[in-house]
Amino acid sequence: MIQTAQDMKTYKKQLQESLGNSFLRTSLDNFGSSYKASRAKAFENLDFEDMRNGIAESKDAALPRLEELLEQFTGNAEKAGVKVHFAKDAEEANTIISDIAKKGGVKNIVKAKSMTAEETFLNAHLEKDGFKVTETDLGEWIIQLRNEGPSHMVMPAIHLSRGEVAELFTTVTGKKHDPDDINGMVKTARRELRQAFLEADMGISGANFAIAESGTIGIVTNEGNGRLTTTLPRIHVALAGIDKLVPDIKTAFRILKVLPRNATGQAITSYVTWITGAVECGASPTGTKERHIVFLDNGRLTLAQDPVLCESLRCIRCGACANVCPIYRLVGGHKHGHVYIGAIGLILTCFYHGVENDRAIIRNCLNCQACKEVCPSGIDLPHLIKKVYRRVLDADGSKPVKNMLLSTMLRNRKLFHFFLRRAYLAQLPLSGGGPFIRHLPLLLGKEHGFRSLPAIAKTPFRDQWNTLQKQVSSPKYRIAFFGGCVLDFVYPEQGKAFLSLVQEQGVQVEFPMKQTCCGLPAMMSAEEETAKEVAIQNLEAMDAGKYDYIVTLCASCGSHLKENYPKMFNGEPELESKVREFASKVIDFSSFMVNVLEISAENLGSGKKKVAYHAPCHLCRGLKVTEEPRKLLTDAGLEYAPAEDEDACCGFGGSYSVDFPEISSEILKRKLDNVEKTGAEVLVTDCPGCVMQLRGGMDRRERCIEVRHIAEVL
Ligand code: SF4
Ligand code: SF4
């Protein structure tokens, strides 16, 4: 039985259970690493971006035509002897299938893997109606025997060890199974399942494609069970979401070229089966197979009309968004989804299984963008997750206290900055005037002790501006410097380092005083109105037309200003062009230094230190800047020692690390372990938020590895 937490307290308990499961973590971690390598190999010499655009375009073109495609499919499939059904919801789909079985005098049913059948809880319905249902995909069979839901869309039993499977098989067969004898366990499964196939009157499958032009369905599997299920029994029913409709075989092939590569790193799966029409069948008294295709709506047609969230219907169920998600890799699918898991699961759960099942899990996203980077359908998953989070809050009619405080503070820049200045004084008993707060107030709880917190700076960057600003005669560039809250109020020295680098290069820097928080924390908390209000304040504070560039040292701010601002004002003609101009001028520090100033080695310090680098999520995935910071490090003569998984998240995620310290700390631990292995003396990164997390973690470890912003190191 799937038991997804419906409140944060229960969810937190469940997370702790998963974090305590060392097998789960090792197994998911090993899988995540090998997946990365095999996926990269599978896409070697292929243009993933081009393939991704192709899928996104064809899916987007099909979405407004789903009903028309259904009609075309039905006409063609029925001409070939197939009965096509349409179910508006899960209950109706299950009833249709049960009625087909009753009418056909069915007793035994075999099933191939189908996420849509998981979505409708079909097995439970059929069993209640007296049918014997046997899952025939090995992983699905295992979880059926355990009365569990899948923990991954492609590998449903990935959360189980061979010891657990051996124990299960021993209980089911009454014969002792050795966990080290995998072959023996496979033989048991084959023996049991073959018998089920021979006794089955009906086979139920899913469908990866439903091709309107021919009434054909396509099924992609790695085990022969899909073919046996659709061919051996006298009745075959395929259950498919209406979003699986594509106009033609060309579109299906376009998806097929990507699906196995992205799902498991295979160029093609073992079996790709195309079924058109009701064929001859020896087991049928009429000599012809009875074939049905049931299309499920369950909210998809309404979702298709949502201007933003319709993107989620592009999903081809490859499961990659889970494979790369640092949270999934720690806690597994049962704690990072409901029926559908991973990033897409957080989104779809709200529509297919109700707000109550999404209420807790939807908050568990770091916004690290790893899912978005690998999604072959080009779905902006982190963005949609925040949109859905907002829907959940609206549906519940209540918000966390944090949201109210955040909104009140951020909307009023003067109040916000007043509060930060006062915080310097308030923290003194805890910081003792030093750079860290090492003993946290008890109300934060001991799980927050995984990192030292930085002390608020005595004098924020903005209060030092008058003494720092410099008039440059005949400047090469005129830029606005966007500080961001962390640099401005915690690490003003990073801003000073930046000024000393660029002012020498003939850059006229301005620091518009009315700039405020970029608004990302509000966006992360689904406070859309606040995020927009804050964005407008920044647009007004920095008249983009006056500047060549708007430079920031904060990857998160940069990515938010550049990527999210245009999205927020999309369709608002009075602001759209202003926002576009603003966003086009935003540039991160490293890109500005390398691509605009074309800074040469002589203009950089000549450090001899060994440095490791942490690539901030919003720089390498958000802004897609990867080469420039590394070039700067090597140009500066530093000994750059690459760490394992440099581009993996550090676990910060702004307020995420406060909401989910148990997960943030584990992600940070892995990051710091990898850095320590390099033997580096300095860990360099280009986001003040990441500096805060990494430096706090290093301080807790009492290691002498310094953590610096790249501007300071240069
Ligand atoms: S943004 Fe990162 S944390 Fe959030 S779902 Fe995607 S991969 Fe997971
Ligand atoms: S959302 Fe994208 S990455 Fe995730 S399962 Fe769907 S297609 Fe794959």
Salient structural properties:
about 725 residues; alpha/beta; Rossmann fold; six-stranded parallel sheet; four-stranded mixed sheet; 20 strands; about 50% helix
Q: How do the helices and strands line up, and which of them pair or pack?
A:
Layout: H1 8-19, H2 22-42, H3 48-62, H4 66-79, E1 82-87, H5 90-103, E2 108-111, H6 115-120, H7 122-128, E3 132-135, H8 138-145, H9 162-173, H10 182-199, E4 202-205, E5 209-211, E6 216-221, H11 225-231, E7 235-241, E8 245-246, H12 249-264, E9 271-276, E10 290-296, H13 300-303, H14 320-323, H15 328-331, H16 342-352, H17 355-358, H18 370-374, H19 381-396, H20 401-411, H21 413-431, E11 436-437, E12 453-454, H22 461-468, E13 477-482, H23 485-489, H24 492-503, E14 507-510, H25 520-524, H26 528-541, E15 549-552, H27 555-568, H28 573-585, E16 586-588, H29 589-596, E17 610-614, H30 617-622, H31 627-635, E18 639-640, H32 656-659, H33 661-678, E19 682-685, H34 688-701, E20 706-709, H35 710-713
Parallel strand pairs: 1-10, 2-3, 2-4, 4-7, 5-8, 7-10, 13-14, 13-15, 15-16, 17-18, 17-19, 19-20
Antiparallel strand pairs: 5-6, 6-9, 11-12
Helix pairs in contact: 2-12, 3-12, 16-19, 27-28, 29-31, 33-34
The structure holds iron/sulfur cluster (SF4) (2 copies).
